[in-house]
Amino acid sequence: ASSPFFVNTQLRDWAGPAPRRAGVSSFGIGGTNAHLILEEPPAIEAGDPGRSWQILTLSAKTQTALDAATQRLAAHLSQHPDLNLADVAYTLQVGRQPFSYRRALVCSDRDDALRTLTADSSDRVLSGQVSYSDRPVAFLFPGQGAQYVDMGRALYDDEPVFREAVDRCCELLTPHLHPEGTRDLRTFLYPTDEARAEATEQLTQTQLTQPALFVIEYALAQLWQSWGVKPAAMIGHSIGEYVAATLAGVFSLEDALKLVATRGRLMQSVPHGSMLSVALPASGIAPLLLPAISVAAINGPSLCVVAGPDAAIEQFEQSLAERNIETRRLHTSHAFHSAMMEPIVEEFTAQVAQVTLRPPTSRFISNVSGTWITEAEATDPRYWGHQLRQPVNFAAGLETLFAEPDQALLEVGPGRTLSTFARQHPAKRQQSIFQSLRHPQERISDAVFLSLTVARLWLVGVEIDWAAMNSEQRRLRVPLPTYPFERQRYWIDAPGVQRSTAPAPIQNALESEPVIEKPVFALHGRPAGAPEYVEPRNAIEGHVAGIWQELLGVDQIGIHDNFFEMGGHSLMATQMVARLQDVFPVDLPLSALFEVSTLAELGELIETLLIEKIEALPEDEAQQLVESMFG
Predict the structure, then answer these.
(1) Quick one: CA torsion of 161, 433, 61, 109, rounded to 10 degrees?
(2) For residue 555, what pLDDT is reported?
(3) Based on the number of CB atoms within 10 Å of its own CB, is 286 exposed (0-12), middle (13-18) or buried (19 or more)?
(4) Angle at 412 (CA atoms; ends 410, 204), nearest 5 degrees
(5) 162 near 469, Cβ under 8 Å?
(6) Residue 312 clears pLDDT 50, i.e. is over it
(7) How far, in whole angstroms, is CA 308 from its chain's centroid?
(8) In this structure, are strands 54-60 and 33-39 parallel, antiparallel, or unpaired?
């Protein structure tokens, strides 16, 4: 009793000076004795807060196991309010083996994750089934017209790799944009509120537009590669080909920036011109062209761009309107890839001859030929002079890419122009197509948009280096629910033992699913990475979905689908609005498609407009109007 030792007979706090230590003895039966002194570990510091939006990844070997894993994660988050969501995301990303059935959730905090995981549906919960891993990716770099003020602003603020690439490019560009070195491109890319109007106007000027696009696309490519997404192939549209060539090692970054600035300045120096997108194939538009107009781009089998002097383009636009051919003016300051570029071809070729051109170390497609660029072309200054004058043969380039059916296509730049061309191309097979940055009219932050794209790439089998993606933060592994094994009984029952043979609830649900009749026109499946399909809930959504199906050729249009992400483009949007107004007698502006992003939001807008119209009519006229629409 007088010694400091006692037998602990009940649970009690271990008081004493830190750190606490304990001796553990093991006495072996054969006489081997071991003694270890253990010391408590240091206190674990909390992880960093992490990004404003997190990607929670779940996968399993069956759909039912994936659903069970989702439910278990939701329950765990509910029971542990103190969890750091960034650590939860990190643990799921690097601490779980990926299987073929996958689900990804993009959320802002624990409460948002709980709400979204337990909701009936959400456009931030994505699911897919992967048939193979390590899917190759092709990078698509857009050209002039895709730019806008603040493109990638959130990435510049929050992603060090992106910011460092933008800063380096802008510092290298400064002496080429202004002899006194006083013109920093970042003041136009990310202006103050007071300077926004001037920056918006300046970014339409070719001498700034082309360097700005190059910088953003190059920085995005560096960010994607730092996350493990490296291109197996590349294609650029006009100035976008310079980004591809730089990543392939044809130009050094310094030389590429100098040439891009020179190219923009020389193009700015020629007389003003216009460009017009026309819904016709190249063969169909050729007989209609005026002498001063050139075909500047072939973006699809039935989508071309023509360019020329302002007066000639205006006259040509009017003549096409008389033939009921759809057209759209492009937001450019000059007639690129037309005869108006002839005066600068020789001077630009001489500028290219002053830099070192190296054979490409990775594959990219030529705008001129529409197929893989050769070593001779890439290292010939005359090719790069030729490239600014000849039409951009983008449709042929896409056909070359689509000959490799396993790859995913990723637009690495602002907007969705090239993604739209790709989705509408007839050579497209099972390729999945994604964008990096939002369209300027989309009401979503860059951070959410990019996170959704990362999730969609992972859902189709693209390998993401999650550890590298989190390398700028201090992340911790935390305890989370383990895999929900679906145990089955294989023992043979003893004679006389009877067991229930009723099917599982999920089987009953599958067997009782209604058969949905398909429309008479040909449809293809939903694109990979699309939001989970949720069928229309009312007559208005049903009418809208039917029109989208016929125009887009996509089966199962759901309420969370986005018209442009499903393959729509601006010319098709005009047709769609006209069709909607045939069904619903409301004044629906074309701009509404850019302001309401999903079918559900569009249906809600139409419903609001209809109610306003019906309430303004006498009762009998209102009743007649409703019956004419819905029967």
Answers:
(1) 50
(2) 81
(3) exposed
(4) 140
(5) no
(6) yes
(7) 33
(8) unpaired
Packing angle between helix 206-226 and helix 160-177, nearest 10 degrees? 150
Tokens standing for residue 328: 């759209």
Distance of alpha carbon 277 from alpha carbon 307, whole angstroms: 9
pLDDT number for residue 407: 92
pLDDT, one tens digit per residue, over 428-462 is: 988 899 999 999 888 888 999 999 999 999 999 99
Widest Cα–Cα separation across the chain: 113
Report residue 466: phi and psi, to 5°: -65, -35
Joined tokens for residue 72: 């278990």
Interior/surface letters 211-244, b for 16+ CB within 10 angstroms, e for the rest: bbbbbbbbbbbbbbbbbebbbebbbbbbbbbbbb
Q: For residue 337, what are the CA distances in angstroms to 280, 308, 368, 387?
A: 18, 9, 11, 8
Q: To which H or E segment does residue 104 belong?
A: strand 101-107
Q: Averaging pLDDT over each range in 6-20, 233-247, 320-334, 617-631, which range is the top one?
A: 233-247
**CA–CA separation, 439 vs 178, rounded Å?**
30
Q: Which residues pair with 304 in a beta bridge?
A: 278, 298
Check: CB of residue 312 under 8 Å from CB of residue 340: no
Report DSSP state, residue 372: B
Please tell me the predicted confidence (pLDDT) of residue 433: 95
* HSE of 273, CA atoms in CB hemisphere, 13 A: 24
